Amino acid sequence: MSDVHDRILKIIADQAMLEPAELKSEMSPQDIGIDSMGLVESIFAIEEEFDISVPFNANEPESSDFDISTLGSIIAAVEKLVAEKV
Amino acid sequence: MNAKKNKGDKPEKSQRKSEKVTGKVKSATSRARTMLGRVIMGRHANGMRRVAITGMGTINALGRDVPSTFEAMREGRCGIGELDFRDVERLAVRIGGQVRDWNAETYFNRQQIVLYDKFTQFTLLAAREAVDQSGLIFEGELGIRSGVVLGTAAGGMNTWDENYRTVYEEGKNRVHPFVVPRLMNNAAASHLSMEYGLMGPSFTVATACASSNHAMGMAFNMVRSGAATVMLTGGSEAMLCFGGVKAWEGLRVMSKDACRPFSATRNGMVQGEGAGVFVFEDWEHAVARGADILAEVVGFSMSADAQDIVMPSAIGAERTITGAMQDAQLRPEEIGYINAHGTGTAANDKTECAAVAHAFGHHADQLMMSSTKSMHGHLIGGTGAVELLACIMALRDGVIAPTIGYEEPDPECALDVVPNEARQAKVGAVLSNAFAFGGLNAVIALRKV
Q: Which chain A residues have a beta carbon less than 8 Å from that of B114?
């Protein structure tokens, strides 16, 4: 697991008030009690952490390029954005 | 369409009336007895409901609850001191009535703090004390029939200030997603509605320094008219941050050393911060559940000077003071104490004294009027709420809070301003004045229970 992976997981776990070890990649944000505003807050924290810009609009979460269906897809999308930045 | 409907209703109405009369013609004494019964029972003869205050709560520079605030007022203690926040050294005015050593983590969890600006935090804390005292639980019908109306002038000013700093000074291009729900002026009212399940009329009023009095006047009228059974009301302000004080500095009405209302040596106002929240409850409802009624709200009046954006008008103030007494059906001689607007500026204090002198005539020499802003500072949109506490203390405990910092009489403020030391006195009815920038006036009247 990459450092980026762990840092994202930590942010999401903090938001869900869980331990990172409790999270599994197939879980959806809803599964761990993160509602739409919680997701916006997590994305803000991820943007701050990695100094990236996440293309996410809360009005049409499905149609953006950023896949938020599971924790795994979120982590993969963020890792891609971080990699593109360098 | 309405007119047509009313016409159609008319014959029916008179029919009903005549049916009633044929049964038994009431004598004048029995009618009077019914009216008296209604007043005792919690209704005025005109069908309006009486309004009880059954809870009060506060946080301000004098204390973090009502007992500590009352104690400070009794002792004439000053809560104004050196301001402590980021960039204070760039201010010319460095004193205020600040809530010392404020640590939000003591009262709220991380998720709450993300959503609560300081003005909301203060409101929630004051409301907790007030609702606990009232003993009310807003379940079922009561939740639907209860609401919240609060006053604030600047709402989430700290949130504006911090985030402007982020984007302007630090040049960052991203702000936290909850900046808007945190800073909006109705945030505190909305959080109270959520905290207690209040689903009735709920909103926020912003009329600068009269915001809380307007809010409490609205709450009073809503309970009085039967539109709500219980209203949480009062107000909150948290403007003591660099941008908040800097803006006031610009007006050049601020004192750099102390707030000395009505004293010839006064040199301006001093800002404060905090909140006051009250439970206004339908009298019958309060009596039926055996609540401890702290005071009765009996009158309210509001008006606009329609004159100047900053200079107060004695005529407008007098009209509002008189209006509140008329609304309360109180004669001037019945008023024993006025909590003054008393900002400590040259303009306000002499205008207010002239207004009171005109409104009360000879009785102006008998009544006491103090400005507790000398102790807790001017809480702007929250000030009327904290000042209503001094009114309740006067009615309930027979203690008149003093105007501290009083050094020299001013012939233009020749009233009994209860200088420097609290006084024991029995009063049956009181007024609380608020005269805002923009010429908006709001006066509320309370009576002893």
A: 41
